[in-house]
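Before any further analysis, we paired sequence with structure tokens, yielding the entry below:
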Amino acid sequence: MTFVRRLFMTSAVLAGAGAVSAITTREVLRRQAAVARAVIGKPLGELAPDADRVYKKRLGDRVELVLLGDSIAAGLGADDERGTLGSRLARGVAKASGRSVRLTTVARVGSESSVLGEQVADLPANLRPDVAVIVVGGNDVTHRVPVSESVKHLVGAVEELQARGAEVVVGTCPDLGALRPVPQPLRALGSRASRQLAAAQRVAALDHGAWSVSLADVVGPFFITNPDEMFSLDRFHPSAVGYKRTAKAMLPSVLAALGEQETGHVLPFGHQAPRAVDDVSGRAPTG
């Protein structure tokens, strides 16, 4: 089932309380979904570029970076492997830390939070990640997965990664309201559902010792104001420029999780450190 069809099914349920009759609302949303489906299509296929390798090998003192989640974490929409989120993050960490970085990506296009456990299990048994980045949620919204169920799977993955010794950074669900091919009011309903999930993900991540980055806050405005530049040709997944901006926005929390930020460094807006970190340092959560 396509993205917009699933979003339509979700939105039809949420839209029942409007001033227009439920039947009329459903028909309007059905027609809008059909138009959006035709516009988006699947011009990128379902395989993201493979960016896994060791970056800046000559630097030594290697950082093990893993990426889990959906098509954004996998990098679908980038022109080549260098344009993916993983490659951008790996190179950003190497530059800022002066250390080499090995990237391992187990994120898969189309994934929901329910497969995060499988992705953790796909990691090599002897791999001990230093930091794991999770970006997931859009498919949960379009599949109408209850927020509580999505969060349960996210927490399970966070705990499994921590058991392997990893610090975890969660990029919360992007704002689906940035998807211009999806007309109103369908887009507004998707935006509301994605923001509700993002808020729940943030609380769960922080309460379970993970770092949280609100993608809706730190990069969402760029996708809304510059869609031609930030989106790839399907106008749904990020372009190489979109991934560059997303990686740059997420980097402060990734570096902080690695201990590569100076003591007392204040995280930017939209970033929050785990509850335990804030409690110990006496620093109020930021963002």
